[in-house]
Amino acid sequence: LVSRENHAERSIVRVGGVPVGPGTMTLIAGPCAVETPDQTLQAAQMAQAAGATLLRGGAFKPRTSPYAFQGLGEAGLRILADVRDETGMPVVTEVVDAADVELVASYADMLQIGTRNAQNFALLQAAGESGKPVMLKRGMNGTIEEWLMAAEYIAQRGNLDIVLCERGIRTFEKATRNTLDISAVPVAQRLSHLPVIVDPSHSGGHRDLVLPLTRAAIAVGADGVIIDVHPHPETALCDGPQALVNGDLRELAKVVRALPPLV
Ligand code: PEP
Predict the structure, then answer these.
(1) Ligand 1 lining (C-beta closer than 6 Å)
(2) Is ipTM over 0.95?
(3) Beta carbons of 224 and 200 less than 8 angstroms apart
(4) Does pTM top 0.80 for this prediction?
(5) pLDDT digit string, tens, across residues 14-39
(6) How far is the CA of 97 from the centre of ligand 1 (A)?
């Protein structure tokens, strides 16, 4: 279903009316985690001023440590919905448990399935039945084939509104948080008709890598990028070192505008 064999044209997925697909170079930005109404609104306004058309933000956070901030849950979803009302930006947010899909889908415009759940088949199937578009991140240890087969689990439940997201894989390299597999973008686009975006924030794990990795994503023909931003990264409850602040974001916006997307 997700293969290009029976679907030669590359697909465009609409998220609350915003297109993601060939030629769109969609900018998705927002806080890694929703912390407070103010922080989320400020991050959304920064993102929107830089040209972002979709707001990201996690209310359910899949953290390595059980002692780390786990997200605000439904209270976070309510904040995202309020910020959407205020800014008009459709919301992309992660769901980590099949039992929460209905709840998250009642607030979100697109469900995000994160790297740690990339082969959680019950979750993939539930997302496939949610009636909402799904952004599927590549598993950090997953091959491209495993990623596409994970997408197939969603598609099999009748949902072809899937956006693939390359977010870096585990390698021996420790200088970056993950190794951005830039070649995965054209490979996935050759094998699948689904849009493919890149997450330079979770790939690099450092603010200063976000701009160069965004350039790489655009140059290789990605259909969009998803970026962490925070009004005060030094106090962020999640992934502050990779969050862009206003100045960086303006620079990134210039790059996105200057480099025409490949179609
Ligand atoms: C995220 O985007 O908030 C996230 C946790 O990403 P990943 O699943 O790629 O680590």
Answers:
(1) 32, 58, 62, 94, 114-115, 137, 167, 199, 202
(2) yes
(3) no
(4) yes
(5) 999 999 999 999 999 999 999 999 99
(6) 14
